[in-house]
Amino acid sequence: MFPYDTADWSVVDGPMYMLANTSLPGIFTAIAAVLCVCVWVLVVGNRSEHQ
Fold it and tell me: 15 Cβ partners below 8 Å, 6+ apart?
């Protein structure tokens, strides 16, 4: 079952994913933000090309 024998958050005693206490989650967030901006630029460019 989830994470151990009972489905209760009281049994969780640490991070649930690797690299939780490092700078990598912030780096991953920055990468995701850059990708969102790239998608936005492509959508806006496509709209202007169709006009």
Answer: 21
